[in-house]
Amino acid sequence: MSKNWYPVINYENCIECGACFNKCSHGVYKKEGERPVVVYPEGCVDGCRGCQKLCPSGAIEYVGDTGGKDNCSCGCCC
Question: 4Fe-4S ferredoxin-type domain location, by residue (predicted)?
């Protein structure tokens, strides 16, 4: 798990579809009403872009993203 890589949601773009919440099996997200909120950033796997790939509105970016390719080895089918 990572302290240097975690998702940030742009709520101006977020359509509250829940794709990120439903995708992540590491407890990174919680729903407040319909809005996904990052509550456990340490649970995010370094290099995982699974939730970003599923986000239909492009509302997810990552702290620590240097523009490199996926580097996920968590087995969560990123």
Answer: 5-34, 35-65
> Dihedral sign, CA of 48, 9, 55, 31?
positive
Q: Specify the 3-state DSSP secondary structure of 15.
A: coil
Q: Are 59 and 11 in contact (CB under 8 A)?
A: yes
- Which residue range is the domain that position 50 belongs to? 6-63
Residue 71 lies in a domain: no
Task: Decide if 72 is inside a domain.
Answer: no
* pTM for this entry: 0.83
pLDDT in tens, 35-60: 999 999 999 999 999 999 999 999 99
